Amino acid sequence: MIALALDGLRRAIFAISIVAIFVLFVGPIMILGVTSVRPASGAFYIWRGTNFTLNNFVEVLHQSQVLEAMWNSFVLSTLATILSLGITVGSGYMLSRFGGWIQRSWFATIYVFRTVPYISWVLPLYLVNTRLGIYDSYLGLLLPHIAVHVCFFSWLMKGFFDGVNPSMEYAALIDGCTRWGAFCRVALPAAMPGIAALAILCWLSTWNEFLFALILSGKRTPLITSTMAQFVTETGTEWNLMSATAVLAMLPALLVTIFGQKYVIRGLRM
Amino acid sequence: MIVRSTKLGLDEKERFMLFLIAPAAIVLACFEIIPILIGMNASFRDWSLVNPQRTWVGLKQYVAVFTDPVFLKIVLPNTFLLMTASVGLSLAFGLALASLLNRPFFGRAVVRTIILLPLTIAPVITATMIRWSFNDQFGVITNFLSYLGLADIGWLSDRWPSFALVIMTDIWIWTPWFTIILLAALQGLPPEPFEAARIDAATPWCIFRRITMPMLRPVIIVCVLIRAIDAFRTFDQVWILTGGGPARSTEVFSVYTYVLAFVDLDIGRGAAAAGVGAIIMLFVGGVLYKLVNRSVEVSR
User: Is A87 an 8 Å CB contact of chain B?
Assistant: First the structure.
């Protein structure tokens, strides 16, 4: 009897925790979502009244800056993903397969530069970009967004190659394959699932990135996060429009979470 | 096939190794290392946009940062408080959630999807919705709390409530990260020790403390290392939620540096603050690395 009651209690606690997870994690997103479909007058006290409208989205999309920012963020994220995976894959392979002083010093380098706070090198990067005349341009945003991924991605890529059995590559080398061939044709395809997962995470993190966008982009090349921030910190009153922008900016995240969940989880596991 | 390396030359294998890291190393050098050097140069100069003479002033800017009461009494404590509170609490919640989800139940896939949301949504958006939910007049949560009789909390107008909000937002974002990784680790544990413990009639708490925790230790340590380093540079949430306010009381290191360089337009002082942060982090990173390498082999 006591065992039964205890079991019931345990089940109740379990159910309550699951409900709590829903409320805590979905609640704030719901508040934002509801605000985005309320007319300007109903955006305050959103739990009162039943007027709903899609006009906020129409209005936001008619502001050329938001559309332009979304397009810029899209292009930037895509290019940054391709290039940063391209340049770190070799570095990760090297860290995983080889030893010796080169491997050790490269590992030390990427560890040291990973600990340096972003602001410490984005601030002078602003000076570099204005000097080179690439401030507020695609190039000036793209290169730092690649550089920021070098350290961490090399580390993650190392993990992917660690998970691939090297004996196939040794066999290929014995059969007369070059080192480059063993890397490209044997190791790379085997590490592909991990790299695909990392590509999705990289795309999202570039889309979501804010500090670089704030410092290195301006009126000419607005990005979605810095445009959002302007809404919040400068206007700060049109909550319905702001929520609509936020919901639009959230779309890629929602799509990836729903359809690419498997890859996200695989990527996070390292 | 293997050529011994001579004194000056590199053998074929070493050349291949350098070739593999070359693109990454070049990008790192041009867009991280060189800017850091330029920043160091700027930090020794009196360089503000109003007074652009860039006179060499030696360590004056560093002295100014280290004697700035805001930096010593607010920024540094806030930064390390955010770091420990966020990492500690999201680890604890992540561990609890991972243990909770580590069993089949109806709707588990949905819960796992929901848990991923905070990780994929931009921190800027998260901070925006938290700021809106805690709006002093119209916020849903503020109104709900005042309905419960907690009306007097100045969520975005007093220091500690504001800072608590920053920490809660950070925990909201990062708990799922710990959950996913620890859940994966839990599912990868061998079942035998748990079966043996159950046969010996160990309580669930005892199993958790004596078996699960020691087996998860390496994963936890690596997670904490990664997160602690990232938490030091938290910027997005703080900037959007409080902007460092009220009256600079919630500034953390990145916000402090940003404000110096881009709001006060004092590049020299900002670069000095950035340098101080980098040095602190190199030290903290080094200590953490030593601690971690003792228990887990990270580099190999």
Answer: yes
β-strands B45-46, B55-56: how paired? antiparallel
Count how many pairs of residues, chain A against chain B, have C-beta atoms within 8 Å: 271
Q: Tell whether B277 is covered by a domain.
A: yes
Measured between CB atoms, does A259 come within 8 Å of chain B?
no
B134, part of any domain? yes
Stated as kind and residue range, the H or E segment containing B56 is strand B55-56
CA-based nearest residue in chain B for residue A251: B121
- Asked if B119 and A204 touch (Cβ cutoff 8 Å), the reply is no
| Chain A residues closer than 8 Å to B238 by CB | none
Rounded Cα–Cα distance for residues B13 and B20 (Å): 11
To 10 degrees, what angle do helices A118-132 and B34-43 make? 90
**Mean predicted confidence (pLDDT) in A56-75:** 86
Model confidence over A234-252: pLDDT tens digits? 666 678 888 888 898 888 8
**Residue B120 and residue B227 share a domain:** yes
Number of other residues whose CB lies within 10 A of the CB of residue B204: 12
Of B17, B111, B184, the CB nearest to A18: B111
pLDDT, tens only, B127-160: 988 888 888 777 888 888 888 877 777 777 788 8
Give chain A positions within 8 Å (CB) of B264: none
Residue of chain B whose alpha carbon sits nearest to that of A139: B31
How many angstroms away from the CA of A269 is the closest CA of chain B? 5
Whether B291 has its CB under 8 Å from any CB of chain A: the answer is no
Q: Provide the whole-model pTM.
A: 0.86
Which residues span the domain enclosing B9?
A: 1-42
d(CA B1, CA A77): 43
ipTM of the complex model: 0.86
